[in-house]
Amino acid sequence: MIAVVFSGSRFADWRLAEKGRVLHGFRTTGINPYIQDERFIYQLLNKNTQLINNAERIRKIYFFGAGASSKERQEKIEKVFTQFFKNAKVKVSHDMLASAISTFGNEKGIIGIIGSGSNAAYYNGRKIVENNYGLGYILADEASTNWQARHILKDFLTEVMPQGFREKLLNKHNIDRKIILDKTYNTPNPNIFLTSFADFILENKDDPYMEGIIKKGLETYVKTYLIPLSESYPDATLNFTGSVANNYADWLREIIKENHLTVGTIIREPVQNLVKYYINKN
Q1: How far apart are CA 271 and CA 276, in angstroms?
Q2: Is residue 251 assigned to a domain?
Q3: Residue 74 sits in which domain range?
Q4: Which one of 82, 97, 229, 259 is at 20 to 30 Å from 37 when CA atoms are compared?
């Protein structure tokens, strides 16, 4: 049995496959070695019945995740997974490679992720070409749910948010200044708090205030990531994965077109294409 895992900060999508077919598909809390320690990750695995029941049957694990770009953080995942899945060989890489494989296969192009976080890179058909992007939810993540939520919460706290939208927000989320500051600065995973606003943002995307924030994020993302990459790789197609890219695909395509770039595929979750890819390899 093989396991293919694609993890953002909010969710990790799992597929367990054997003899050419997927037997189990489910979600867990996101696994991010940049912000979670080994104990937290092990406890997360140990809470899932499917993983407990199949741990000894799994022989290969292909894990791709946000925060898993460095060797040190990849080794953290390998250590925890090897401890939990005692019979498995574990391969860990970052979410950019997973997104590239799932949309380009072995073709070249620029791959973008816009979900709970955001990033972009050039894929040469085999690997991601390293760059200086991917600075995380505090310094970067333009257009992502983290970015959107930060702007909403700041406007809420500084009382520049339209009153009608403020009322909608309070009807959906029990928040005040103390809660926001505590969850942002005094909890181990503030990004989970930020991504908890994803459904509310989507539900209110047509509100002029919310639409303005979403479009501003996408415009910033295009200028920060895509235009510089396209200048280096002028004929490259742009493919995307992630909930934000998928949910606001029309706006994303429109903004990219205005910048004279070409969009190819946009998918929400890479895991379906990933598991097909690795079933064919095993």
Answers
A1: 9
A2: no
A3: 2-98+271-281
A4: 97
